[in-house]
Amino acid sequence: MSGTAQIGVSGLAVMGRNLARNFARNGFSVAVHNRTTSRTDALVQEFGDEGTFVAARTPEEFVVALERPRRLVIMVKAGNPTDAVIQEFAPLLEDGDIIIDGGNAHFEDTRRRERELRERGIHFVGAGISGGEEGALHGPSIMPGGSKESYGSLEPMLEKISAKAKDGDSCVTYIGPDGAGHFVKMTHNGIEYADMQLIGEAYQLLRDVAGYSPAQIADIFRSWNTGRLDSYLIEITAEVLSHVDAETGDPFVDVVLDQAEQKGTGRWTVQIALDLGVPVSAIAEAVFARSVSGHAALRAASRHLEGPSAHKLGEDEAAAFADQVEQALYASKIVAYTQGFHEIAAGSEQYDWNIDLGEVAAIWRGGCIIRAAFLDRIAGAYEAQPQMPSLLADKSFAEEIGAAQDDWRAVIATAVTRGVPTPAFAATLAYYDSLRAERLPAALTQGQRDYFGAHTYRRTDREGTFHTLWGGDKTEGES
């Protein structure tokens, strides 16, 4: 066995196995390796007819099987397991070889690994891969970061296995140096959290306020998916809501425990946004909503709290309210994506990555979880104005949200009066109103800070930094 495989995949759980199959199906010879060798054997036995696989039982066999420059994709858990695999393979590699981490690593870990391996002459690529197990097999959206030289070696393969947008473009592009790819994937997942929370809030309103059944709401979402809300998440929401539990005959959503779990990327998105000073309130509220759902004891202890009285909507009222919810959902989704792209732009500036936001939007049009019809327009908006400070600066999106705002506000007001929690809807509207406000109460906040901590302030009428001598003497001094 010597240097016949064009690429290798180590870590053959569902994502790794499907990614290896994707490479093989697209005509590439693939070395496959797993610490538990039974997984390697099972893959070759079950899917060997899909292409050329080279089974390797040891790291040494795996490395020897790869042609130069060696391309190793590792698909293991983030954190220490990733470091352990790198430490296992790195001593076996030579100058110019490439390790590709396809997991959901923290971008700071990726930056560290890229730096350490670069010193040893080895390229390290942190590649965000979105699309779940189906995407890994049939075509994901791929967000690689690392050296341009390493991407040049990988580009033909990644373009071949990636998802294709409706115009035929491959959903992969070079994101930027070191941790840029994993940063963009992290933010992608943060937007995903917000998107899912907004959809959940729309569902809750349609059920608790309009009185629709899950099956009826499924039909509403199917209708929405034929218009401007056309997206993967809207599509699968309809499927989930129409599903009936085989055991009980009840709607599936009624037999699932209402505690949403999370793996950490949404939380990272919020934590890094705080470090960068970027407001991502929709993503934050989505993360907090999952946290609240998981506090079963707290929720049980609070069931005695009273809510408002409610009245049932008539058929015409319910239909009109559903239309308003569609407007609110669309406007809120645009704001959530706006916040995510702002964070990517801020990260790009902070780490000198030079990320092309239009290219990011373009590769999210297919394969990934947040793929949506309006990403075509987002890509076009950034292509037309690469330095656009906010997606809401785009005239067409601004006009649409302006047209939706009356219904958006009405939905949130109804949610408040009916006692239905809509933290993400409310946060996106507050963000919109904050951006359009001529004056914010931050002036008062800064005055308070100067009063109790002498933190100084700036003025509207002249340059400089000032401090007021609070107490008896109210004179101002420039510092």
Topology of this protein?
Blueprint: E1 7-10, H1 14-25, E2 30-33, H2 37-47, E3 53-56, H3 59-64, E4 71-74, H4 80-89, E5 98-101, H5 107-118, E6 123-130, H6 132-138, E7 141-145, H7 148-161, H8 180-208, H9 214-224, H10 232-242, H11 252-255, H12 265-276, H13 281-294, H14 296-301, H15 315-351, H16 357-363, H17 375-384, H18 395-418, H19 423-436, H20 442-453, E8 466-468, E9 476-478
Parallel strand pairs: 1-2, 1-4, 2-3, 4-5, 5-6
Antiparallel strand pairs: 6-7, 8-9
Taking the sheet with the most strands, its summary is:
7 strands, mixed
- Count helical runs: 20
Dominant shape: globular
Mean pLDDT equals: 95
Which percent bin holds the helix content? 40-55%
Order of helices and strands: EHEHEHEHEHEHEHHHHHHHHHHHHHHEE
Computed CA radius of gyration, to the nearest angstrom: 25 Å
Residue fraction in strands: 5-15%
Structural class: alpha/beta
**Major beta sheet, strand line-up:** 3-2-1-4-5-6-7
* End-to-end CA span: 73 Å
Low-confidence stretches: none
The total count of strands amounts to 9
Write a compact overview of the structure shown:
The chain is built from 20 helices and nine strands.
